């Protein structure tokens, strides 16, 4: 998916995808997310909601999600002025409005290892490019200075981004979870997301991302700003 070919194909993609059920689902999920936030802030309906409303600082919001929910989290944060940061765990997005578009808040994206376990059928196993590089950023803004962190977790497959990585022991699990040890996956997910939120939501020093990258060599930085001008080669 080189940049020039992508730009040429994007209008056809945008026209087709707006009719797809996945795009409609994005709108529904984002609406549900906004409804939950409004219900929490109102604090009505149950004693639990009232207690939560008292404890939540609604001026320091963050959104996070995995897979389809990862894209929804970033979209929801982008639409909510009070959102300070968003993280996406191997997330995807289909809404054309999110391509060639800069997210207004700091962003953390943890990708699974697409070199070993591609998320999409026919996805190129090229460390230099991921399909979601075209989302949540301007295509021509290579020198743009913003807090956009995209990382690849080596040896992990898509479902490793869930708690199920600790529970599943069936033969063939590597296709769904990869070969990463559950303890490593837990440490990476909690270490990077909490340090990211500490820095950008709580305003606390956390060493993000240098400290966590030094602690977890399985995590490789991915520079989504360097979109290739020519098609990458399959490995």
UniProtKB/TrEMBL annotation:
The record, for Gene3D superfamilies, names: alpha/beta hydrolase
Q: Which InterPro entries match?
A: AB_hydrolase_fold
Keyword Lipid metabolism in record? yes
The record's Gene Ontology biological-process terms are: lipid catabolic process
Q: Which residues form the signal peptide?
A: none
Ordered alphabetically, the record's keywords are: Hydrolase, Lipid degradation, Lipid metabolism
**GO molecular function, one example?**
1-alkyl-2-acetylglycerophosphocholine esterase activity
Q: What is this protein called?
A: Dienelactone hydrolase domain-containing protein
Organism of origin: marine sediment metagenome
């Amino acid at each position: 998916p080189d940049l020039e070919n992508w730009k040429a194909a994007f209008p056809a993609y945008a026209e087709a995808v707006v009719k797809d059920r996945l795009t409609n689902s994005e709108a529904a999920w984002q609406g549900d997310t906004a409804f939950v936030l409004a219900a929490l802030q109102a604090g009505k309906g149950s004693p639990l909601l009232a207690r939560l409303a008292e404890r939540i600082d609604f001026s320091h919001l963050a959104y996070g999600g995995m897979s389809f929910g990862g894209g929804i989290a970033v979209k929801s944060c982008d639409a909510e002025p009070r959102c300070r940061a968003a993280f996406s765990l191997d997330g995807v997005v289909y809404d054309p409005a999110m391509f060639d578009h800069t997210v207004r808040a700091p962003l953390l994206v943890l990708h699974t290892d697409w070199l070993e376990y591609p998320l999409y059928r026919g996805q190129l196993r090229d460390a230099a490019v991921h399909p979601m590089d075209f989302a949540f950023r301007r295509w021509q803004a290579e020198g743009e200075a913003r807090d956009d962190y995209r990382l690849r977790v080596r040896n992990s497959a898509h479902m490793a981004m869930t708690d199920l990585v600790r529970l599943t022991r069936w033969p063939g699990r590597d296709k769904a979870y990869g070969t990463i040890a559950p303890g490593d996956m837990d440490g990476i997910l909690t270490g990077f997301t909490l340090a990211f939120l500490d820095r950008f939501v709580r305003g606390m020093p956390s060493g993000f991302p240098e400290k966590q990258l030094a602690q977890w060599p399985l995590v490789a930085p991915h520079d989504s700003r360097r979109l290739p001008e020519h098609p990458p080669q399959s490995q």
